[in-house]
Amino acid sequence: SQDTWVDFKLFGITGIMFVFIILQTVFISKYLPKEDGNEDTK
User: Fold this and answer.
1) How far is CA 26 from the centre of its chain?
2) Where in the sequence is the domain holding 12, given as residue range(s)?
3) For residue 2, what pLDDT band results from cuts at 50, 70 and 90?
4) Residue 40 located in a structural domain
5) What is the pTM of this model?
6) What total number of domains does the chain contain?
């Protein structure tokens, strides 16, 4: 029982966190302003 809990906390939570980060990055990138790169920075 404790081995299952340790495996879940070690691998399950880490995996869920990475999936969450990837999904948030995809979602937020749709709403970020586009950068052209053609602007003059003088």
Assistant:
1) 8
2) 1-31
3) very high
4) no
5) 0.61
6) 1
